[in-house]
C-alpha cells in the first residue's frame, strides 16, 4: 500500500548527545575526517546504509543504541573534543582576519548549483563542484562569504543504463526535511519568504533553506510552497530542466530573489551586508537589476545606480562556447519585467539593453545572460589563463575598437578543495612526514610554491600507497558494476565474471566528466583494434574506468555513452574497461585516488579549466591531457604527458580526431606503459614514483582552492570593495553624468596628425623617438581623456603584437582650430619589425580599465599614411 502522506520523524537525542545534531547540520563534516569517524562509530551499519550522511544516520539509529552512547564516557569525550573543535573553527581568526587593509565586510556568491556533498545533491558537474569548493575554501580561510542558490526538489538526475546501454534518467524526490538543511525563520517562528511579481498579477514565492558550509551560510530558494500555484511550485523542480520560460523564472528567482534572500538573512542574523556580489556564470545575472532597483528606491537615477552596482560586482564566466550560454527571446524577457511584472519602476528597455547582443556577430533579438553579466560587472574573469584569452576573443564585440588582449576580462585559474578530494591514505602519509596540523594547513591555505616534504617519502611507501588506492578502486568498481548490471536486468548467475574485473596491479586510467560532444568521450575508441591491443597486452596491459552523464535532452551525448558501453560489454575486454553509471561526488572520491593516469581529451580550446585532473593530481595520479584549460598553463613533463593537438583552422574534424587519437595511442604504447612497468634496481618503478612525487610536491600547491580563493580576495574582491566604497551616491551620479557626456561628445574626438623625430625606417635598439600628435577633443577637455602611444613588434600584416602603451602629455592650450598638441618619448626597446600608433581613450579615476567605457579613437587611414612608420 502507498502512503497518502510522508512525514520525517526525528529522533530525540539524549541530552549528552545533543551536540551530534549541531555537528550533523554543519556540512564541515563532509571534509573533516574526525567528525566523520565520530558519526561512523555511532553505528557502522547505519552509517553505511545512510550513504555516510549524518542527518539520515541520526534518523535511523535505534533508541537503545543512543541510550548506550549517552552513557559511554569514551564516546562522550570524543564528542566533546569534536564539538569544541568545530566551535573553535567557527569563531577563531583565520587567514582572512590576519590580512591588512580594508577587505570586504562580506561577499555574496551566487551560483545555479553547488556540489558540497553527495548528501546534498544540488549539482550537475564542474560548475557546481567548483562552487562548492569555493565555499569550503572560503570557510577554511575565514572569508565572510554568503552563498546563494536554488533548492532543486529533484536535483539533476540519477543515471542508469538500459540492457542495450542507453542512458536512463530518474528524478527521485528530495525532501528538504531529510537533508542537512534548516528553514530560515522570522523572529516569530514563521518561515522567511521572498516573492517575485509575475505577469498577469501572479506571484512566485519561495522559502529560504540554510545549509551551513563550515563558516559559510548557503541560502537555497525553494518555490515548492503551498502559496504558489502548481506551475510556480515547479520552478525549482530540476536543475537545468524545462523550457525557456522555466529557465528564465529560475534565473530571475536566483538573481532577484537571491538578493532579497541575502537581505532577509542579514536582517535576521545581523550578518554584515555584502559589499561585493560575485556572479558565478551568467545564470544569476539578474542580481544586478535587483540591486539597481534597490538604489533607485533610495533616490538614484538608473544610470547612477548602474555605476554603483557595477563597482561592487564580479562576474566569472566558465563557458568557452557561445552555445553554452543561456539566451532568451527579447519578448519573453520583456514580458517578465516592467509595470505589470517584476521591477516595475525600471524601464523595460533599459533592462533589455543590458542583455541584448547589439554588437557585430550578435543576434539582435536575443537576450544573453553572460552579456548582461559582463555589462553589470566592473570586474570579470575566466577560470584558467587560456580560458581568459578565449573569453576575451568571444566577448570582444562588447568592446569595439580594442584588441582582444585588452578586453577587460582577466583570469583566476580554478582550484579544488583538497580536504574534500584527497584520500585519507594520502593525507596520513603526508601527516606522517610533517604532522597533522602542518599537513592540514598545507592543504587549505594555498600559500606554498612547493611541498618539499614529499621529496623525502620513501619509494616503497609511495608505491604501496598507490597500490592500496588502486585496490580500493577495484573493489568499488566491482560493487558498482554488479549493481548496474542488476539494474540492466541481469541475474546473479550471469555476473560471476565481475569478480575478475580489473586488477590492482595493472596500469589504471580514469576518464569521468559530463558528456557534451567537445569532451570526446569516445576518442579512445577511434582505433578499436589498437585499443584492444593496449587493454590485452601480455606484459604491459592497461585498464580503463569511464563515467559520465549526458544531458537528458542531448541524444548525441547519449549515443556516445551507448557506444562506449557497448564496447565495454564485449566479453573479450569487459574485465579491462568499464563504464560506471551515475557519476557523482561519492564515486569521484574513490575514482580520482585509485587511478594512475587521468585522461582528458577535449577539443582545444573548448575546456574552460577541467578541474577533475587537479583532484586526481592531489592524490598522486598523473595527467594525460590535451593542452587545454589548466593543463595548458601548468603542464611539465614531470607531471604527466601532453596529447599533441591538430587544431589548425583548416583541419577537418574527422581527420583531427584521427590524428589526436593516434597520438594518444602512441603515448600509451611507447612512453607511458613502459615507464609504469619497468623496474629499477630496487624492484620498483622508480621513474614512475619520481613523477608521482613531483606531481604532489610541485603541482599540488598550485591546484588548491585555497590558492584560488586567495587570488579572488586579493585581485577581485578587495578592489571591488574599494570601488564600492568610493561609489557613494554623489560619485555614482557624477560618473554616470560624465559617461553620458563623453559618449555624446565622442563622435567629435579624433587623432588629426602624428609626427615623429625618426629620420628613416630603421633605428638602433635603445634609441628614443620623439612623438608629437595633434588631436581634436570636440566638447571634451584633456582631463576627460588619455592620449596614448601604442607600440611593439608588428606581424606580416603590420598588426602590433605584445603592445606597450605610454601616455602622452598635453603641451599648452588648444590652437586656433581647437586642437590640442600632445608629446612624449617612444623607446625602441626591442629589435626587429617595430611599429606604433596613437589612440585616445576616456579617462576617469573611477574606471577600472581604459577599455571599460568601450570607446576609443584612432588615426584615420589618411593620418596613418601620412605619419605611420615601421622600423625594420
From TrEMBL:
The keyword Transcription regulation does not apply. The lineage of its organism: Bacteria, Bacillati, Actinomycetota, Actinomycetes, Kitasatosporales. Phosphorylase is an important allosteric enzyme in carbohydrate metabolism. Enzymes from different sources differ in their regulatory mechanisms and in their natural substrates. However, all known phosphorylases share catalytic and structural properties. Its cofactor is pyridoxal 5'-phosphate. Its EC number is 2.4.1.1. InterPro entries: Agluc_phsphrylas, Glyco_trans_35, Glycogen/Maltodextrin_Phosph, Glycogen_phosphorylase_DUF3417, Pyridoxal_P_attach_site. Keywords: Allosteric enzyme, Carbohydrate metabolism, Glycosyltransferase, Pyridoxal phosphate, Transferase. Gene3D superfamilies: Glycogen Phosphorylase B. It catalyses: [(1->4)-alpha-D-glucosyl](n) + phosphate = [(1->4)-alpha-D-glucosyl](n-1) + alpha-D-glucose 1-phosphate. Residues 13-120 form the DUF3417 domain. Belongs to the glycogen phosphorylase family. This is glycogen phosphorylase. The keyword Ribonucleoprotein does not apply. It is an enzyme of class 2 (transferase).
Amino acid at each position: 500500500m502507498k502512503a497518502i502522506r510522508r512525514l520525517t520523524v526525528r529522533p530525540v537525542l539524549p541530552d549528552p548527545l545533543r551536540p551530534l545534531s549541531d555537528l550533523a547540520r554543519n556540512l564541515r563534516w563532509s571534509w573533516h575526517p574526525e567528525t566523520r569517524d565520530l558519526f561512523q562509530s555511532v553505528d557502522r551499519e547505519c552509517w553505511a546504509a545512510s550513504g555516510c550522511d549524518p542527518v539520515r544516520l541520526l534518523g535511523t539509529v535505534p533508541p537503545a543504541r543512543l541510550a548506550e552512547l549517552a552513557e559511554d564516557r569514551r564516546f562522550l569525550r570524543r564528542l566533546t573534543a569534536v564539538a569544541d573543535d568545530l566551535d573553535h573553527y567557527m569563531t577563531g581568526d583565520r587567514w582572512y582576519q590576519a590580512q591588512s587593509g580594508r577587505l570586504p565586510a562580506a561577499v555574496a556568491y551566487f551560483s545555479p548549483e553547488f556540489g558540497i556533498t553527495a548528501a546534498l545533491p544540488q549539482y550537475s558537474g564542474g560548475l557546481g563542484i567548483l562552487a562548492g569548493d569555493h565555499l569550503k575554501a572560503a570557510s577554511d580561510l575565514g572569508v565572510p562569504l554568503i552563498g546563494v542558490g536554488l533548492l532543486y526538489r529533484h536535483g539533476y538526475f540519477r543515471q542508469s543504463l538500459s540492457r542495450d546501454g542507453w542512458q536512463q534518467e530518474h528524478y527521485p524526490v528530495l525532501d528538504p526535511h531529510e537533508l542537512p538543511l534548516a528553514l530560515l525563520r522570522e523572529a516569530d517562528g514563521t518561515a522567511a519568504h521572498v516573492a517575485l511579481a509575475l505577469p498577469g498579477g501572479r506571484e512566485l514565492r519561495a522559502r529560504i533553506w540554510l545549509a551551513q558550509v563550515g563558516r559559510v551560510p548557503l541560502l537555497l530558494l525553494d518555490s515548492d510552497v503551498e502559496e504558489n500555484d502548481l506551475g510556480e511550485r515547479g520552478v525549482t523542480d530540476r536543475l537545468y530542466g524545462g523550457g525557456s520560460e522555466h529557465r528564465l523564472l529560475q534565473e530571475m528567482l536566483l538573481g532577484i530573489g537571491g538578493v532579497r534572500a541575502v537581505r532577509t538573512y542579514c536582517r535576521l542574523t545581523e550578518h554584515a551586508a555584502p559589499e561585493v556580489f560575485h556572479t558565478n556564470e551568467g545564470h544569476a545575472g539578474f542580481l544586478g537589476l535587483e540591486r539597481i532597483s534597490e538604489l533607485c528606491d533610495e533616490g538614484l537615477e538608473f544610470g547612477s545606480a548602474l555605476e554603483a552596482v557595477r563597482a561592487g560586482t564580479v562576474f566569472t564566466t566558465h563557458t568557452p562556447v557561445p552555445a553554452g550560454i543561456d539566451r532568451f527571446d527579447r519578448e519573453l524577457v520583456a514580458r517578465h519585467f516592467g509595470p505589470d511584472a517584476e521591477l516595475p519602476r525600471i524601464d523595460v528597455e533599459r533592462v533589455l539593453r543590458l542583455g541584448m547582443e547589439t554588437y557585430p556577430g550578435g543576434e539582435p533579438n536575443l537576450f544573453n545572460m553572460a552579456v548582461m553579466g559582463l555589462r553589470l560587472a566592473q570586474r570579470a574573469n575566466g577560470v584558467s589563463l587560456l580560458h581568459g584569452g578565449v573569453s576575451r576573443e568571444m566577448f570582444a564585440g562588447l568592446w569595439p575598437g580594442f584588441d582582444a588582449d585588452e578586453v577587460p576580462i582577466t583570469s583566476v585559474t580554478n582550484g579544488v578543495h583538497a580536504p574534500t578530494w584527497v584520500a585519507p591514505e594520502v593525507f596520513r602519509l603526508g601527516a606522517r612526514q610533517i604532522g597533522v596540523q602542518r599537513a592540514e594547513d598545507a592543504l587549505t591555505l594555498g600559500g606554498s610554491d612547493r611541498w618539499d616534504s614529499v621529496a623525502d617519502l620513501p619509494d616503497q611507501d609511495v608505491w604501496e600507497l598507490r597500490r592500496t588506492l588502486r585496490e580500493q578502486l577495484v573493489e568499488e568498481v566491482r560493487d558498482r558494476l554488479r549493481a548496474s548490471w542488476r539494474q540492466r536486468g541481469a541475474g546473479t548467475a550471469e555476473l560471476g565474471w565481475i569478480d575478475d574485473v580489473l586488477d590492482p596491479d595493472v596500469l589504471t586510467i580514469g576518464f569521468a566528466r559530463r558528456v557534451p560532444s567537445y569532451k570526446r568521450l569516445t576518442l579512445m575508441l577511434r582505433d578499436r583494434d589498437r585499443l584492444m591491443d593496449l587493454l590485452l597486452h601480455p606484459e604491459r596491459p592497461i585498464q580503463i574506468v569511464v563515467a559520465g552523464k549526458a544531458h537528458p535532452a542531448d541524444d548525441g551525448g547519449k549515443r556516445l555513452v551507448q557506444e562506449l558501453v557497448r564496447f565495454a560489454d564485449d566479453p573479450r575486454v569487459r574485465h579491462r574497461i568499464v563504464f560506471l553509471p551515475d557519476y557523482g561526488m561519492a564515486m569521484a572520491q574513490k575514482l580520482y585516488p585509485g587511478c594512475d593516469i587521468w585522461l582528458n581529451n577535449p577539443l582545444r580550446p573548448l575546456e574552460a579549466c577541467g578541474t577533475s585532473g587537479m583532484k586526481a593530481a592531489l592524490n598522486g595520479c598523473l595527467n594525460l591531457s590535451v593542452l587545454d584549460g589548466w593543463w595548458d598553463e601548468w603542464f611539465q613533463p614531470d607531471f604527466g604527458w601532453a596529447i599533441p593537438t591538430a587544431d589548425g583552422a583548416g583541419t577537418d574534424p574527422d581527420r583531427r580526431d584521427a590524428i589526436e587519437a593516434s597520438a594518444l595511442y602512441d603515448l600509451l604504447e611507447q612512453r607511458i606503459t613502459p615507464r609504469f612497468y619497468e623496474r629499477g634496481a630496487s624492484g620498483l618503478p622508480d621513474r614512475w614514483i619520481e613523477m608521482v612525487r613531483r606531481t604532489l610536491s610541485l603541482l599540488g600547491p598550485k591546484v588548491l582552492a585555497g590558492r584560488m580563493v586567495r587570488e579572488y580576495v586579493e585581485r577581485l574582491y578587495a578592489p571591488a570593495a574599494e570601488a564600492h566604497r568610493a561609489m557613494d551616491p554623489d560619485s555614482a551620479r557624477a560618473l554616470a553624468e560624465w559617461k553620458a557626456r563623453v559618449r555624446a561628445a565622442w563622435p567629435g574626438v579624433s587623432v588629426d596628425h602624428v609626427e615623429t623625430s625618426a629620420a628613416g625606417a630603421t633605428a638602433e635598439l635603445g634609441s628614443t623617438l620623439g612623438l608629437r600628435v595633434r588631436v581634436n577633443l570636440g566638447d571634451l577637455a584633456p582631463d576627460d581623456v588619455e592620449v596614448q602611444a601604442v607600440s611593439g613588434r608588428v606581424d606580416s600584416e603590420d598588426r602590433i603584437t605584445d603592445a606597450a602603451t605610454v601616455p602622452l602629455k598635453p603641451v599648452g592650450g588648444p590652437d586656433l582650430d581647437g586642437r590640442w598638441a600632445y608629446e612624449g618619448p617612444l623607446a625602441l626597446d626591442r629589435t626587429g619589425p617595430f611599429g606604433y600608433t596613437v589612440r585616445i581613450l576616456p579617462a576617469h579615476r573611477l574606471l577600472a580599465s581604459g577599455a571599460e567605457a568601450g570607446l576609443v579613437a584612432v588615426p584615420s587611414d589618411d593620418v596613418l599614411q601620412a605619419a605611420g612608420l615601421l622600423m625594420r
